[in-house]
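Q: How would the structure tokens look for this protein?
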Amino acid sequence: MFRGTSTSAFLLVCVASFGALRMLVGATSALFLLDQGLDLSQLAYLKAMQAVIVVLLEVPLGYLADSLGRRWAIIGAVGFGAAWLLMTGLAPSPGWLWGAEVCNALSICLSTGAMTAEFLDRRLDEESHLEGEGGTSQQDEMGLRDGAREAGADAEPDRAREALALLSRWEFSASALAAGLGGLLYPAFPRGTWVAAGVGCLGIACAYLVYSRHFPPLGFGATTRGPADPEARGHGGSDRWRTVFGLRRRLLGSIAVAGLLYAAFQVAIQYWQVSVTEVFPESFADHSLGPVLGGLFVAILWVQSRVTSLSRVVAASPSGYLLAAGLPATGWLVAQVTGSFLVLAAALLLFFWCFRACDVAVSAAISTAAGAGLRATALAARSTLARILAASLLPAAGVAVTRFDGSVGAVVVVLAVCLAAGTVFAVNAALARRAE
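A: Here is the predicted structure in token form.
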């Protein structure tokens, strides 16, 4: 599968394993925190504190990862993740949970851009190296290899999308398995699950610390190590912020699309279980709802791991992107209005599948437009904007739920934001074509 790309393969396993260990406790984390003595208001304040830290530090730490090196950012992300899991699992009192959540926030900040950017850099570099192995000195003299590199640069968006789809497949496959396993282990080993996940993260950190010392140097060359915008190439680090937020309309537009998508995703995450509960057949016993929700959650994670072909389609067609963004939410709305449980289950799976494909496509566009030297910063900026939009959107979703007297109001908000994301993507693509 990896075609000899051992470094990117190692990174792929590390990123997928780290996400799976977090998901091992993710499905039951709120229940565990409540069992440790927090009440609902304290849990809300705990998560609010985490959100503030992430919004304030995510982009600066992504910039530092790009500027100073991603190796220590990745080690720090996994290390803080281990500290969060171990402190939470072994907390002797609720007060420890606040310090643990600070570690969780720092882990999120450090991992958001650095892990994905490093994997993408290594993957693209190794593919370029494999393609260039057949060249000859005569080809170098004739400039043919330069032409091949230019052709490779033109293909970089497709390569980036394929690499991100591969990462998504491994991440969400592992997370689906971990979520199911965590749900089975939690009743018997609530603390042990957290401790085991923390020890696993320590193992990943140690393995990465040792193995990453032997990573080969990246060999992109000057054309891809800096910003993708020709106007920005040759500038120093002081111009990185201008490149991310000003010099590339396509980059800024792609970040806006990703932010809107993630905001819709956050509303969907908050309300899909409520939506299922509202249409769950009354003929079924109440105790069967829990297994149905758990099985559907695992299925949602699994479908998000199978987006390679769909991401290729939506990236190639702005109208296809708009359709993929808006149609599943429309189906969800229809299912909610009609009260059909089977249609709702199918619509939810379709929604999360299409969301992940659209996210992979726009993340590839962001990564390509930013260039290798700015990928972590740009991806962190995407995540921060998404969090801000999501925080702004959730109160509106709450008002809509009250107005429509049910989760159908939240679905209406999700549909509107998805259509906005698809429209911005189409307009951005049209402007990019006109500029070319």
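The chain has a mean pLDDT of 82.

The chain has 18 helices and no strands.

Upvote if useful.
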